[in-house]
Amino acid sequence: MSEGRDGDAPRLRLRVVFGPGAMLGPGKADLLALIDETGSISAAGRRMRMSYKRAWTLVETLNTLFAAPLVSSSRGGEGGGGARLTDTGREVLARYRALERHAAEAGAPEIDALEALRRPNG
C-alpha cells in the first residue's frame, strides 16, 4: 500500500497519466494489490472503504486501459467466485511500485528541503 515515509511525513503521490481519463495512480495500484491479496474485488473494495460498484468500475477501467486485462474474475455461486491478477496485472503493479520507489528516492532531498521551508504545524 502507499504510505508516507513516517505516517504524516511529506511524500510524493505518483499518477501516470496516459491521456484524458486514462491514468494509474496509488488508489488503483492499492486496489490491484488488495485483489491479489484477497482474491476478491468486493473484499478489496471493502478494505479500501469503497463500494462494490466503485471497485468494479475501477477494475473495468484498468482492464480496458492496457492491451491485456489486469484482473480476471469468476462469478459467485455455489462454489464461490473470485478474482485474481493476470500476469499483465502483476507486471503493471510491480512496475508502478518500482516507479513509486524510484520517484520517492529521487525526490527525497527536494521534499526534505520543502519541508524545512514550511511553517511549523502548517
TrEMBL record:
Species: Sediminimonas qiaohouensis
Protein name: LysR family transcriptional regulator
UniProt domain HTH lysR-type: residue ranges: 32-90
Molecular function per GO: DNA-binding transcription factor activity
A Pfam match: HTH_1
